[in-house]
Write a structure and sequence with these properties.
single chain, alpha+beta, two-stranded antiparallel ribbon, DUF2000 domain-containing protein, Pep_tRNA_hydro_II_dom_sf, DUF2000
Length: about 140
Amino acid sequence: MTFPTKIAVLLRDDLAVWQRLNVTAFLVSGVAGTQPELLGADYADADGTRYLPMFGQPVLVFEGDAAVLSAAHGRAVERGVACAVFTEELFKTGNDEDNRAAVRAVARAGLNLVGIALHGPKNAVDRILKGARLHG
């Protein structure tokens, strides 16, 4: 099945495994929280136990160095594509209020990005991710 939009996460390639997982989880929550139409229906097992819904389309995870991440972020902002950001400073904070303050304290050009998540038209997201590779 093909989808007209793409959900993608781009991670800086020097992160520890736990950081990659943590950043991905936080970033996709931004997409889900602002695009509820991307969520499918609740899941249920054969016993009728209900489970939370998940995205109805794949989430692709990419990686690249800091320059690739910065360029992709710039292209996303220029093109007006919805974007979530995770900066290195967020590894040192412990709550949402401090997270938002840490991002707000730095001008866009100075953000020390470790990851971004995007949702937008497939072709636009593909162009934004130029230079990134699928996470391996």
